[in-house]
Design a protein that fits this description.
Number of strands: 7
Strand order of the largest sheet: 5-4-6-7
Largest sheet: 4 strands, parallel
Shape: globular
CATH class of the largest domain: Alpha Beta
Number of helices: 11
CATH architecture of the largest domain: 3-Layer(aba) Sandwich
Strand content: 5-15%
CATH topology of the largest domain: Rossmann fold
Structural class: alpha/beta
């Protein structure tokens, strides 16, 4: 028997990538054509964007809890959310959740520790790069991290919200992100966190001079591990 995975979706491209990874790689855990049962619930993306833009992460947390309850009612037994940014709210509501969570930054931190990475460059939305989601998990493992300066963080945010969340992948945007990863390498980073759910659509391991920590797929694989344990 496998556990029923519930996905709290936020942005559709990232949620779809997480879902596809669970289904596609399920055969590696369970056999050909096999994967755990999966249910996904998503609200209107703007329902998340408005409170997050207003720095009302408490309202974002309430929305996540509503999704969690819908998924629990549908029979899910564990929860994941492939959106990195809203994890600032998940930390605050996790004790109120009707089901156990797997935390995206915890899974990235575990992978970094297992691979021996000690200094990570982090790319994601501006709130993610400036917030506590990854520092909270990396500090516990003695892993250092770096983010770009403010001007770059703002530009990365623009690329994410205007292109990547809609599945728009442009060569010039890929080149920009590759340049950022090269800068991380120059200042001593030994890996880069693709800490926005959609960045893996733009940057693959072959596109990066540093090893990549693909947060979306790492979370999906953690869910597979938990569901089949």
């Amino acid at each position: 028997m496998t556990k029923h995975i519930g996905i709290v979706g936020v942005s559709y491209e990232g949620a779809a990538l997480c879902y596809r990874t669970i289904c596609k790689e399920g055969k590696d855990w369970l056999g050909m054509y096999e994967h755990p049962q999966v249910t996904m619930h998503t609200f209107n993306l703007n329902d998340y964007k408005k409170p997050s833009d207003a720095d009302r992460w408490d309202l974002v947390g309430e929305l996540i809890l509503k999704s969690a309850r819908v998924l629990a009612g549908a029979g899910a037994e564990l929860l994941i959310c492939p959106d990195n940014t809203v994890h600032v709210s998940i930390d605050d509501i996790i004790d109120q959740s009707p089901l156990p969570w797997l935390h995206i930054a915890e899974e990235v931190a575990r992978e970094a520790e297992d691979k021996g990475y000690r200094n990570l460059g982090i790319l994601g939305t501006q709130p993610l790069m400036e917030g506590p989601v990854y520092p909270r998990k990396l500090e516990k493992r003695g892993i250092h991290w770096q983010t770009p300066d403010l001007t770059v963080r703002q530009q990365v945010q623009q690329y994410i919200v205007e292109e990547l969340i809609y599945g728009t992948v442009l060569p010039e945007t890929r080149k920009y992100f590759q340049g950022l990863i090269e800068q991380f390498a120059k200042v001593g980073c030994d890996a880069v966190v693709l800490g926005c759910t959609e960045i893996p659509l733009l940057i693959s391991a072959e596109d990066s001079v540093l090893p990549t920590l693909d947060s979306t797929r790492l979370l999906a694989r953690a869910a597979l591990r938990e569901a089949t344990s």
